[in-house]
Fold this sequence. Notes:
Blueprint: H1 2-14, H2 18-43, H3 48-73, H4 80-103, H5 106-125, H6 133-174
Helix pairs in contact: 2-3, 2-4, 3-4, 3-6, 4-5, 5-6
Amino acid sequence: MATAAVQHGLARQMKVDALRVTYVLGVCFVIAGGLVAAVTGPLDLERGSWLAAYSVLVCGVAQCALAVGHTVTGAPAPTSQLSWIRLVGWNLGNLLVIVGALLQVPILVDIGAVPLVIALVLTLRSTRNARRWIPAVGYRLVLLVLIVSIPIGVTLSHARAATASAEPAHAAMESW
């Protein structure tokens, strides 16, 4: 009987907690963004400052906020399944946005925006039963700002890609 209890306790300890993974990944993105910022100038990375800012603010800080939001607001912790869906969606979406933005392929940014919105909406819904009213309002406002910023970022991605594809044609016309 005691052995079964010990095994159950060990199995519970070995279970990977999606909220902790989310937080640790967020911290890793903050560090990675700082490293990108450090090498952007010396390596003359054209989109390095954007990548650094995006990595720190969206991939990192926002991801940490997703992990601890229920604690701050007093809302019930999300289910393990919801936490994993949000973790995978957030990181897959950010990966697609980064690749799409760096390669100037706006359709990848469009596709990446979908799981980002889903993760944010799921998080917003999970704050319905928050016990701390003022922090919950602040947290919801942060989530809404992130949700509103996604179509803005998608639009900017399309504008950048259109400008980049128009530059060679403009240069050719000027050379005549």
